[in-house]
Design goal:
Helix 1 crosses helix 2 and helix 1 crosses helix 4. With 84 residues, the chain is mainly alpha-helical. The longest helix is centred in the first third of the chain and has 16 residues. Helix content is 61%, strand content 0%. It contains 4 helices and no strands.
Length: 84
């Protein structure tokens, strides 16, 4: 999956989990907590990213990652695409 498709997919998943119908409004520089992403919802998002992008993000990698912005989550998914 190309990097831009991963970005689009992650934004769609975040919008879906948050109950938004506008993934285009999910900016890469948006702070996760400011848009309503909490610890439980981040886990739901990561599970869906893994399923829909066909990747596996290790638990230790997830907990060690500094996931503050939407772009951080996109970068984590893209880096795991390269390893898949």
């Amino acid at each position: 999956m190309p990097p831009e498709k991963v970005e689009s997919q992650v934004r769609e998943i975040i919008a879906s989990v948050l109950g938004s119908s506008a993934p285009s409004e999910i900016r890469l520089d948006a702070e996760l907590h400011e848009i309503g992403v909490e610890s439980l919802s981040i886990l739901a998002i990561v599970v869906r990213v893994e399923e829909e992008c066909g990747i596996k993000i290790g638990d230790s990698e997830l907990f060690e990652a500094s996931l503050k912005r939407v772009g951080d989550l996109v970068e984590l998914a893209q880096s795991n695409m390269a390893h898949s």
